[in-house]
Structure prediction request, 180 residues.
Amino acid sequence: MATLRILVAVLAISSLSCRQDGLFGCNNVLAFRLNGRVFNANSFSSVLYRNVDVYTGLSSKTLTIEAENAQGEYFLLEITDFRDGAFGTCLTVEPYYANIFVNFCVPGQPFACNQYRAEFRDEDGNVFAQSGDSGQLIVTRCDAPDATISGNFGFEVEDFSTGAGGLLEAGSFSVCYLVL
Prediction:
């Protein structure tokens, strides 16, 4: 029981370091422009976790960044690296694509592709998801010892309930993350 309490305490402290700027030397930044409006996040949660396919035994990593701004808008970004699934290592520094089957796969290696998905909820509660096969995200730097990652992105989004859409552009991020 004591071991479980220690683990919970360590996870709580670690997650605090990823939720706010300044704690433990972490300066999180995530911003983009959507239809002329700028989103600048001020609250973060970033977690890198390992996935293992129970059927094939292949492993991958997913970084999940959740960010909110002062207006209550929310942005979710999930980046999956199928090329290096080793625990505790960084995501591969390279482009990631919205549709792995159309844009990028490693020849002769099934499921050895990198991809991302994104979702944005504006202050009115409208939910926009990445749409189509266009756009990309580029991981420009990943530092495992410091648990930090940076990159930029741009892609089309669509509100599937209303059909409204737009171009999410000039996106960039630099965040610390917790490894689970």
Residues 8 and 62 are 22 Å apart (CA to CA). The longest strand covers residues 165-176. The two ends are 20 Å apart (CA to CA).
